[in-house]
Amino acid sequence: MISTKSHYSGLPLRPWRRVFVYHFEIKRYNNIGTVESTHLLQTGGKRQRSHCDMFEQNVPLKQLSHYKIGGDARYFFEAKNVDDLIKAIKKQRQLETPLFILAGATNVLINDKGFDGLILKIQNSKINPLTGGQNEIIKAEAGTLMSDLVNFAIENNLSGLEWASGLPGTLGGAIRGNAGAFGGEIKDVVEEVVSLDISQKIPKIIKRKAEDCDFEYRSSIFKKNPQKEIIVEATLKLRKGDKKEIEERTNQNINYRLSNHPMEYPSLGSTFKNVLISQINNNISINQLLNQRKSALIIKNDPLPVIPAAFLISEAGLKGISVGGAQISPKHPNFIVNVSNATGDDVENLIQIVKNEVRKKFEIELKEEIERI
Ligand SMILES: Cc1cc2nc3c(=O)[nH]c(=O)nc-3n(C[C@H](O)[C@H](O)[C@H](O)COP(=O)(O)OP(=O)(O)OC[C@H]3O[C@@H](n4cnc5c(N)ncnc54)[C@H](O)[C@@H]3O)c2cc1C
Fold it and tell me: Are residues 57 and 142 in the same domain?
């Protein structure tokens, strides 16, 4: 069953989010004893019961996606443990159908036609403290929401995850993309990652120390080898701290997001990666712009010095423009928000407009931070 908790630590469920929870909670049993969910109701009975009882079929991904955008998955399965993963991979191979691993769906743009393959949703979410003392080690399963981890840290007086307050999605998704905010990154607290290698005939468990995970700016070994390994769990190293101070830092970060990000609309967060200063040292138009403005106010540490993509988009005059129901947020122009039943095509069109205009104006090739199905 889909989690009923908000992806955002400390934030109330938004109305559209409540709809999402409601939609996925109702399940009923059909007359042959297999689960028939509201997915079927939504597709007007399109789902067929065929050769594959293990997977749900023709499942709308729109409600599952944080963006509220996307078509149907031909096959859909929620894995709660490694056994489930292995069984699902075996079946997916028998069906000779493509695979996509999905977790919180907070960083994936799902296209309007959907996915003609298996969406394997990571749904394991246990948190186990391992040791006491000065350094607190916890083990958490990959499907654990980051908001649950942040709350767990506060409850147990543990410092090290304050930067992640308000970060939506799961631990597995955060590790894969080395998610970061407010000067912190997930790599700062990861000790070990356990994954299931599904690139070989027989899936096998791999344990890697953090230094072997190739963590880089919004990347890791898992991202460099897409859909080849499924992150199963990770060991995190936090520090004992003062509960009140931890809570204060956490709340500060959430409040920053509430004031500066368009949280009132569905989005995937930042659409484009910020641009590393080291990559554009010789860019004349950027250097001119930085000379005209107070560059200290523009350059951000993320944690390396970057020019925010939001700044470039804004300077290209694109704030607030829309295509269909998708809009470049006037509040934070790196967010493309779903203001009114946007389609995947609306978002793709806006992405192209932004890339073209920023290239024309600054000779910079913006790269997407979001992924696509
Ligand atoms: C409002 C908002 C604010 C955001 N702010 C930030 C921010 O400040 N910093 C930041 O870095 N990101 C931010 N994001 C982006 C997003 O939340 C993160 O990238 C998040 O870590 C993605 O996790 P997820 O579980 O949703 O992954 P998904 O979106 O489900 O998947 C993302 C990718 O990870 C892969 N994946 C997921 N789980 C696993 C697993 N267990 N094993 C292998 N592969 C896996 C998927 O295949 C996919 O390729 C924001 C998003 C939103 C909507």
Answer: no
**Cis ω for the linkage preceding 203 (within 30 of 0):** no
Q: What is the distance in A from the centroid of ligand 1 to the CA of 107? A: 5
- Tell me which residue range forms the domain holding 93: 15-122
Secondary structure of residue 202 in the 3-state scheme: coil
**pTM of structure:** 0.85
**Are 141 and 225 within one domain?**
yes
Q: Long-range CB contacts (< 8 A, 24+ apart) of 33-41?
A: 39/76
Q: What is the pLDDT of residues 17-72, one digit of tens each?
A: 322 222 222 232 222 222 333 333 333 345 554 556 899 999 999 999 999 999 99
Same domain flag for 235 and 347 = no
Among the candidates 122, 156, 172, a domain finishes at 122
**Number of domains the chain is built from:** 3
* Pocket (CB within 6 angstroms of ligand 1): 66, 101-108, 122, 142, 167-170, 172-174, 176-177, 179-181, 222, 230-231, 267-269, 371
Span 257-294, pLDDT tens digits: 999 999 999 999 999 999 888 877 777 777 777 777 76
Together in a domain, 250 and 135: yes
Beta bridge partners of residue 322, listed in sequence order:
327
Q: Is residue 8 part of a domain?
A: no
As annotated, the active-site residues are 218, 270, 369
Ligand 1 center to residue 287 CA distance, Å? 32
Beta bridge partners of residue 368, listed in sequence order? 272
Q: Which of 270, 240, 238 is nearest to 167 (CA)?
A: 270
| CA 267 to ligand 1 center in whole angstroms | 12
Residue 5 lies in a domain: no
Residue 263 CA, closest ligand 1 atom number: 1
Q: Same domain for 152 and 108? A: no
CA–CA separation, 335 vs 271, rounded Å?
6
